[in-house]
Write a structure and sequence with these properties.
Blueprint lengths: L2 E6 L1 H5 L3 H10 L3 E8 L3 H7 L9 H8 L4 E7 L3 H9 L12 H5 L8 E3 L3 H11 L7
Antiparallel strand pairs: 1-3, 1-4, 2-3
Helix pairs in contact: 3-4
The structure holds guanosine-5'-triphosphate (GTP) and magnesium ion (MG).
Main location: cytoplasm
GO molecular function, one term: ATP binding
Family: Belongs to the NDK family.
Length: 137
């Protein structure tokens, strides 16, 4: 697949890292196909993270992801899903490789600065959750 979906999460937006994160993403060869500043309602976040509903951190995750604006974007590059997950680093910034976006900008395992789709199928679903066809270029 050549597309993935990302969100710059509320912590990174609050901490003023939108510009630096977008710069690292585009410098790494990803083209921005769609992008907006938006805020998920609690209900949006519950639906977006439905697969994690049984996890102990689900409530915390929904609360966090709906507490402020995010940057949602669709990115294009060969091998996009895998390469983007390499660029952002491990879920827990303490385990993330040096130079990765989460190593540089995440504050904790929960508030970890960015999202990256984990499969081509989910990239499509997640992109469609946030964007209409007319918003993709
Ligand atoms: P995403 O790209 O955001 O999907 O992260 P991921 O694929 O690296 O992790 P995963 O899908 O397993 O978890 C989704 C999100 O739930 C993480 O990015 C964190 O924001 C949050 N999360 C995961 N594990 C924990 C945890 O142990 N505690 C808390 N509070 N949040 C967690
Ligand atoms: Mg995930």
């Amino acid at each position: 697949g050549n597309r993935t979906f990302t969100m710059i999460k509320p912590d990174a937006v609050e901490n003023g890292h939108i510009g630096a994160i977008l710069e690292q993403i585009t410098a790494s060869g990803f083209r921005i196909v769609a992008m907006k500043l938006t805020q998920m309602t609690r209900r949006d976040a519950e639906k977006f993270y439905e697969v994690h509903a049984e996890r102990p951190f689900y409530g915390e995750l929904v609360e966090f992801m709906s507490r402020g604006p995010i940057v949602a974007a669709i990115l294009e590059k060969e091998n996009a899903v895998e390469d983007f997950r390499t660029l952002i680093g491990a879920t827990n910034p303490e385990d993330a490789a040096e130079g990765t976006i989460r190593k540089k900008y995440a504050t904790s395992v929960g508030e970890n600065a960015v999202h990256g789709s984990d499969s081509d199928e989910n990239a499509k679903i997640e992109g469609a959750f946030h964007f209409s066809g007319r918003e993709m270029f």
